[in-house]
Structures are given as C-alpha cells and as structure tokens.
Amino acid sequence: MSMTSRERIWTSLNHKEPDRIPVDLGGTIVTSICKGAYIDLMDYLGFDLDEEKVAIMDVVQQLPVLDRRLLDWIGVDVLPLLPNPPSTWKLEIKDEGKYYSYVDEWGAKLYMPKGGYYFDYREFPLKESTLEALDKMNWPDPDDPARWEGLRERAEKLYRETDYALVGSALFGGGIFEHPARIRGMEEFLMDTFSNIKFVEAVMEKMMELYLRATENYLNEVGEFIQVFAYWDDVSTQNGPMVSPEFYRKYIKPKQKRLFDLIRSKTDAKIFMHSCGACYEFIPDYIEIGVDILNPVQISADGMGDTAKLKREFGNDIVFWGGGIHSQRVLPFGTPEEIREDVKRRIDDLAPGGGFIFNAVHNMQNFIPPDNIVEMYKTLKENWEY
C-alpha cells in the first residue's frame, strides 16, 4: 500500500519498513546540493531555471532553496522548517575586490573568493580566551520575536496542505562544541581545550543557554507540526575524533543531553544528530543521550565504511540518515557501474527493517557530473521498494 511522505518517514524513523525507502535532499540543510551542482542538474533534467533568481538557503555552504519539480522527480519526502533572521542583523554581502564578504550575527567575518564556492570564517569576535572577553561579547538574542514571526502559520500550512515530513531546528549557528570555533577560530579554540578549560567550559555553557532558550521558543511555536528536530555538532575529523571520548563525555555530552531532554519535553519529533567524520566511538553516547538519527553517515571516514557493521551494531537504536553512496570518490568520479554497485550495497546494508533515509553523504559538491547524480537516483528507484 502506498504511503504519504510523512507516513513513510515516520514509519522508517520507528524502525519499521515503509512501502519504499524514504528520501531526503535539502530537508536538513546539512545534506543538500551545492548551487553549481544544482544548476547543472536542473539543466540536465530539462527544468528551466533562472540562475540569477536561485534563492540561497545557507549562505556559508551556498546551498539553494530547491525547486519542487526536482524534489518530485527524485521522490523527496522531507521539507525544512527554519527560523527567520533576527531583527538586529541583516545579510549584507560586500564586494571587496578579489573577495565577497559579510559579517554574521555573531560578529564573525566570512570571505568567499570571486569564482569560489563557499564562504570561510576568517575574522573572529572572540580575540582572547578570557571570561572578560565572553562578558563583552555581543551575543545573539534567542528571544528576538522576529525569529519566530509567522513561523507557526508557515508550519501549519505545510503540515495541512502537503504530506511532506517536516524537519525543524532552532539553531542559528553551529553546535555547542562546533560553534565556538567559528567565533574564536578553530586553531585557537582547540588549543584552548588544552590550555584554558575554564574558558572552554564557559563558552560552551553560553552556547547551551542560547540554544535552550531558542529551542523552547521554537518548539512553543511549531513542536506539534515537525517530525524531526535537527542538531549538528562535529567532534571528529575524517581520520579520527577531534577530541577524546573522555573529553566529549565530561564536557560536551552533558550539555547536549540537557538540550535533547528539553526537545523531548516539548515535541514528539525525533532527534537528528549531524556528526561528520569518524564518529563511530561516539555513537553509543549519542544513543544514550536520546539521539534517534545519525547523519551524514560519512562512509569515507575511519570506522564508518562498513555499513553492514553499523546496521548490525546500532540499527536497532539509531536511524541512518545518509550514507547512500561514497560521495567523495564514487559519486563524483565513479563509472555508472561503480555508482550502481555502491548504491545497491548501501541499500542492502542499511535498509532492512527500516531505520534508513536515503541521501548522499553530506552536500553534493560542485562539478559532480549530473549524469552521475541521475544514475544514483535511478539506481535508488530501481531498488527502493520493500
């Protein structure tokens, strides 16, 4: 029996087999397609598109708002539901000769070379790792009513008038551990974890407080309409953990748990954790603090390539959202046969019993041949029925 998209997603999130494998693209921001690849794919499929009018959903990653025609062609089951910008900040991209730049609502300055594909964090508001610097920081306001204006009406309209599953989030930056590196600088913040743990604890505590307030405000508006609440916090590189498991368990995990406990108290939505890289060691911890969904399932990272093992060890407790193809090697550079083989392998490993939402690993990058992307989805559709 055919299911609606919302029924399909919810069935799989509850570790049962729906009518077919659910599919996501762009529903969570962190598993989408970059602007250049999107334009190429739309052209390849024969969908007319005014490139100058492509709206950008995520400025840093240059991720577009996706055309519903593409979502329908793929069979996507998910739409995002995100807050508005605050009243105290407006995106203003400046032309600086060789670069474009803008200052985000945290006070960090980002640059993108002309002809480039992403904005990078280059200048940071937290110049010193001191408690005094934290006190002087101009923090975003999680209670700004502009963030939530019209959000409930938008959510109810999507919920009543479409059958998509809705993925929401109250985050307006990176996660509790991840975002301090964007306001302090990655190298500096990681050095701080060795040299000034009091500062590190204080800045993460501040992040947690901001997101607790924002999450409560967000869920008060739309908690009854969303099926998934997305959170993102990278603690790993591709080759291994960025911090020790002991550091994670002592300093980061309790703060994430407080946020997740709040989410569970305000909504029935499942909790989605985007954690890139070699996060195998952290999966039991994620499960313990209430994470329902792991994304992007970076199968190119150490300890993450054996998707059958991941399903066997964790598939009863966590949903795999992503991991549908090796996005660094097979998708951009593989032959059609290699693409088909990899997609079939990931489906065979991750789909049985439900608990699998198909997507590539993280964002599909510019210059991926559109025929490779089409081959991926063609193979999915040939194998997605249970």
Total strand segments: 13
**Pattern of helices and strands:** HHEEHEEEEEHHEHHHEHEHEHEHHEH
- Please report the distance between the alpha carbons of the first and last residues: 11 Å
Q: What can be said about the biggest beta sheet? A: 7 strands, parallel
Give the number of domains: 1
Biggest sheet strand line-up: 3-8-9-10-11-12-13
Q: What are the segments in which pLDDT stays under 50 over at least 5 consecutive residues?
A: none
Structural class comes to alpha/beta
What is the top-level CATH class?
A: Alpha Beta
Return the CATH architecture. Alpha-Beta Barrel
Helix content: 25-40%
- Please tell me how large the radius of gyration is: 20 Å
Shape: globular
Annotated CATH topology = TIM Barrel
- Name the beta content range: 5-15%
The mean pLDDT is: 97
Number of helices: 14
Give me a quick take on this structure.
With 386 residues, the protein is of the alpha/beta class. It is 40% helix and 12% strand. The strands form three sheets. The protein has a seven-stranded parallel β-sheet with strand order 3-8-9-10-11-12-13. It has a four-stranded antiparallel β-sheet with strand order 4-5-6-7, with no helix packed on it.
